[in-house]
Amino acid sequence: MSESNKKAEFGWVMFDWANSSYNLVISTAIFPTFFVAVTDPFINVAGFSLANSTLYAFTVSFAYLIICFISPILSGIADYGGSRKKYMRFFTTMGSLACMSLFFFNGRAGLLGMSASTSLWIGLSGFLIATLSHAGSLVFYDSYLADLVPPRRSDKLSARGYAFGYIGSVILLIFNICMIKFPHAFFMTEEQVSQNLPIRISLLSVGLWWLGFSQFSFAYLPKDKKGQILGNVLTHGIDELKKAWIRIRSNYDLKNYLFAFFCYSAGVQSVVYLAAPFAQKELKFESANLIMVILLLQIVAIVGAYLFAFVSRKTNNFFSMKIMLFIWVVICICAYYVQTHFQFYFLAAAVGMVIGGIQALSRSTFAKLIPKDRNDITCFFSFYDVVYYLSVIGGTFLFGLIEQITGSMRYSVISVIIFFVFGFLFLQKVKIKNLEG
């Protein structure tokens, strides 16, 4: 491997290192528990009284609905105009600044004389913008995978990216946990602690981490190749998308794989985004203890990403993924009956074991399945990401809706099983003899 290729691969995995801090600290560990803790149990929105955890779930759905509409057009334009890195940089900058803005969110207490409602909308707006920016950047990031390595190495590099992401985000989370649990060691006064300064600095740190470490990616990933752009750029972007859709529609295996990916991703992302509020509401976890649980989940996920990459190498990707889908079903059943903190610790470890593997293998499997003459690579990954976004919308919206109707998140958890079952059934339809390409 040439020195330039090594640097490009390093730059690629460092983007996972940089942006995974959003996944862990903002969307999983700290912000969801902080949001539920500092807002009223029920919040009036446009005349409707919504549980705060339901409003959080609906905000996730809305963010992904927005990015679902704009990312196909952006990726088509980027593919046609050779502007992948440009758009990665734009979304990274916007998302980082949105994370930093969460420093000013303090729920009912407010800050700088602002009302509780103003504080609420600062928190929701910052979270929404950070969420859609994170998703938008991944459209262009994921598309580099098939360019950087041949199909036989995509599993390994994809798993390495997720491992870097988990390691980097865990380092930042450990720092944040120390600051939250021992604020006086960081020279904070009681008044500052009462204003949730340790948590708010933790949210600020995500933006700084994300923006800072992503500079390695922008320095080492291949430069954009500027082609001659004729006519309307937007029209060309849409045309590129149409071409990719025609090719996907006529490919039986690729189409069924995307159906499967939609189904099981809806289940996975529901668990990722709403596990913390579930433990906080149903099991009465304290925020600090819950953050420690999620730290355990992330450490186990590093092992899981490599374990299932190894299993797929010895068997095949689909066999490994079917094992994980079965484990996900068992996890949901157990979550419905879980009553103690110890039981939840065990479930968190199980989730960690399969979440890293399912995400890494999903990405690399798609890279293997797309047509070999991949001139419009970004558009193919745009479809992959749009399916992912739709799955998040469907999963989180259903989760929040069932909680709103039943008043219990346990029923929401058990409903997630249907996504994993249908994901398994669609995977059964994919008949691929050789994924190594």
Task: Provide a descriptive summary of the structure in words.
By secondary structure, the protein is mainly α. It has one domain (3-219, 233-428): MFS general substrate transporter like domains (Growth Hormone, Chain: A). The protein has helices at 3-29, 31-38, 52-81, 84-101, 116-143, 145-148, 151-181, 190-194, 197-220, 233-249, 252-282, 287-314, 317-337, 341-369, 377-406, 409-415, 417-428, and strands at residues 42-45, 48-51. A two-stranded antiparallel sheet has the order 1-2. Helix 11 runs antiparallel to helix 17 (417-428), helix 12 (287-314) crosses helix 14 (341-369) and helix 13 packs antiparallel against helix 14 (341-369). The protein is globular, with a radius of gyration of 21 Å.
